[in-house]
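Q&A log
Question type: sequence-to-structure
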Amino acid sequence: MRSIAVFIAALSLSTMALSAMASSATAAPPCKDAKGKFIKCPPPKPVRCKDAKGKFAACTAPGAKPI
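Response status: OK
Response body:
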């Protein structure tokens, strides 16, 4: 009975360790090209906003919402 408890404890610890490694690996995936080679990631696109009339406006303007 004790060997089963030890086995279950070891299994749960290894499962937690594997899930921690998997979550850290998927946190920031590197960029790859079509051939699978690592490349420099493109910069993120800037946020653009529109006002209540539907015209582009600065995001700091009152009533402007991101599109």
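Response note: The two ends are 61 Å apart (CA to CA).
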